[in-house]
Amino acid sequence: MVTSLVVAVGAAIPTVTELVNSLRLGVDYGESSRARDQQKAWETNFYCTRKADIQTFPSKYGIELGSVICPTGDVLIIGKKPDNLVPLFYWVRLSDIIGKEGIGLVASAFATGTLDTSDNTAIPQLVICQRWVNGKILIQRIQTSKGCYDITIDTYTGRVIGSRPATCNCSQF
User: Fold this and answer.
1) N or C, which terminus of the chain has less Cβ within 10 Å?
2) How far apart (Å, rounded) are the C-alpha atoms in residues 26 and 45?
3) pTM for the full model?
4) Which of 48, 114, 86 is nearest to 78 (CA)?
């Protein structure tokens, strides 16, 4: 009887740990490991995204897609649904690619470097500056042909949690 109780309590520890971690990070249950990995990718690639020239392209489904390939081999994917004004950010880590498909895919991504835009018009966006608010929140100032705006990104979820117009000057950032 005592042995069964010890086994039951021991088996519950990972579940409780995940529950606490998920609540602490503000993500769904079972997503704390992925959230920490996404946040780590933001930290690792901070200087890459700081001056990223992001080109987004509308897909045939109306979803705007863009990406930034960093020197680390990590790729930041940006997507925005037609019914949503704010994008979602997601990192694909080189370590994920190497373990599954091999380094050849990464070499191909760097080698091509261009997208077929014959049916699409690029929407240029340039990250002109960015800063950490804390270990979880990143603010980027984005410059477009229509002016500048700041976006606030929850780096654990990739969600934009705020957006506002801004000056195109980083000294006031």
Assistant:
1) N
2) 22
3) 0.60
4) 86
- The whole-angstrom separation of Cα 164 and Cα 169 is 14
Determine phi and psi for 166, rounding to 5 degrees. -150, 165
134 DSSP assignment:
S
Rounded CA separation 67/157 (Å): 17
DSSP state of 122: -
Whole-angstrom distance, CA of residue 137 vs CA of residue 142? 16
Express each pLDDT in 73-98 by its tens digit: 899 999 988 888 788 999 999 887 77
Alpha-carbon distance of 5 to 45, in angstroms, equals: 46
- Kindly state the tokens that stand for 54: 């992001």
Asked if 42 contacts 50 with a C-beta cutoff of 8 angstroms, the reply is no
How far is Cα 89 from Cα 157, in angstroms, rounded to an integer?
Answer: 8
